[in-house]
Amino acid sequence: MESQEKGSEAFWEKARAGLEGRYRDIDKTLVVINGDDAPWIRAGTEHFGRAMYQYDRFHITRDLRQALRGMNERWRKVKRALDENNIPVIQQEIEAALGEAGTEKQKERLLNLRERLARVGEFIIDYRVRLKEAGYNVPPEWRGERQRVKPTWTSLRTGWRSTGGLGRMTDWMGS
After folding, report:
1. Which of 63, 65, 83 is nearest to 74 (CA)?
2. Domain hosting residue 147, numbered range
């Protein structure tokens, strides 16, 4: 774990240095860090004066869908609640689904999600909503459509995972 912490520190120092070259005062610039629930990704918020962690919608949607496999009505309610940023409804549906889990693996996934939602539920709310609530002007054209966004080193999909992902990213960055 200590090796991963050192790798995380090195990664975020390098990321900060890259952003410092692009933004005049990086500690006064809001930095949105979007990722899965990996601790090394969330640690990025400690390296910027004004950082906001955002739980990636792809990852939470995938995890919710897998945990609710076979519970189609619950999945529809959860998906609708996710689209509406209604975390309490998601938590209620996960709690109710625990009594309907068909296998131990499904129950384990649901328990994991229940714990995760209690810990990071606020970070699942769409970042545009969170920015508006924080007083930022969010133009309507900020729709997050990947085809309209130029890819950068932070948005390339290279199969990173929380276990070993940090090493892959720092190798890719040339560390």
Report:
1. 65
2. 2-55+139-169
